[in-house]
Amino acid sequence: xxxxxxxxxxxxxxxxxxxxxxxxxxxxxxxxxxxxxxxxxxxxxxxxxxxxxxxxxxxxxxxxxxxxxxxxxxxxxxxxxxxxxxxxxxxxxxxxxxxxxxxxxxxxxxxxxxxxxxxxxxxxxxxxxxxxxxxxxxxxxxxxxxxxxxxxxxxxxxxxxxxxxxxxxxxxxxxxxxxxxxxxxxxxxxxxxxxxxxxxxxxxxxxxxxxxxxxxxxxxxxxxxxxxxxxxxxxxxxxxxxxxxxxxxxxxxxxxxxxxxxxxxxxxxxxxxxxxxxxxxxxxxxxxxxxxxxxxxxxxxxxxxxxxxxxxxxxxxxxxxxxxxxxxxxxxxxxxxxxxxxxxxxxxxxxxxxxxxxxxxxxxxxxxxxxxxxxxxxxxxxxxxxxxxxxxxxxxxxxxxxxxxxxxxxxxxxxxxxxxxxxxxxxxxxxxxxxxxxxxxxxxxxxxxxxxxxxxxxxxxxxxxxxxxxxxxxxxxxxxxxxxxxxxxxxxxxxxxxxxxxxxx
Length: 505
Known about the structure:
Blueprint: E1 9-15, E2 20-28, E3 31-40, H1 56-73, E4 81-85, H2 87-91, H3 95-106, E5 111-112, H4 115-129, E6 136-142, E7 147-153, E8 156-163, H5 167-174, H6 182-206, E9 210-214, H7 216-227, H8 237-248, H9 266-283, E10 289-290, H10 295-307, H11 312-323, H12 328-345, H13 352-365, H14 377-387, H15 395-406, H16 425-441, E11 454-458, E12 461-467, H17 468-473, H18 475-487, E13 494-500
Parallel strand pairs: 1-4, 4-5, 6-9, 9-10, 12-13
Antiparallel strand pairs: 1-2, 2-3, 6-7, 7-8, 11-12
Helix pairs in contact: 1-3, 4-10, 5-9, 6-9, 7-9, 8-9, 12-13, 12-16, 13-15, 13-16, 14-15, 15-16
């Protein structure tokens, strides 16, 4: 029996607010064939209090689950694994501490993705199930902590929204003590309808031909309705009314026993049902198909797209450059210089190609803040990078980019890497010294002023080699370089400058 080639094996890990999922697949003839699916009901969102603190039992339950997932991931190449944390990770008060522990348990990086990025990935996953369909679709995903609503056509998204309620949060808020009643359900539904008011008219006006639902809540609702003969392959409003009456008849959540509803899903099902009914009402949904695919499939296909140079991040960066009318000549000048320096240093990093890509995008965006104000424009650039909806980028990637553009000049503060996981500190320092030196070299906006510089990095000591002739002709640049060693103190890097009669070989 032949073994599975490691380079053709991929994995996606979806760390949701209710359950953790892992999907392992093998690529064959350009398609993904599922090898393994693992799901555990962790209820991460249920262990989070109002201040964003995670209780110890839930924390340990999550880390134990990640350790089990980590064992299954052994042997899958690191570059073929994508793990993403969603709403609960976004709400964590001390995200870095738990993120570092999670990555250690899982054995790979964990990306925290923004709500609209989660929506984009869900749509990407669902469209794999309905591939070939060019018609306009509404996709709905009810998670533990958030609900995503997307309208798209083919593989392109037209509307993306992530609403801050899910089956766990709605159940906890509106059904305290586990008591079921029509009044409580009505109150929950009205609260969701109030949140949907902001998008209701836009979505109805945009319209769609097919509505598709993903996630455990919707699959469970469909399974119950089909088992009782209330609907066939599609969920309809009349079936949901019968489902509502059946669920409420039990009186308490812990007494719910319905064919098609698992024991693990039952404790939070009423909250999901309230959301589902509200979405049907607000968006006038007549029938809903149920997709077996969701976020994890989207993560896999997005990963494959990145590896095959179909990366939405490039388009997102280009759109931001256009919006803020950057000086493309200067951007290219800084980018060329920064990447030239990085290519002499990057081999020391395990993920050099990914860091190089981020450095290039940082150079593309380093001056977008000039559209707001020249003084401290780097801070404006950092804000715009961090606050913008950038398709394809994770939360950590945007923070990484924001740190690069925000600290491209002036003194670097001691907190420069405080919001990033430990694994990104060294890459940030390496990319930052390259961008800062490139900014200094290109400050006069003249190609002739850029030196043929040699650079090495050894034990936090950066050695920059320049020619004596260049030094003599560029006193302004030399003044900036002489201050740089002081400016870099917080990073732990020490900059030494050496001079030679000729440039680096």
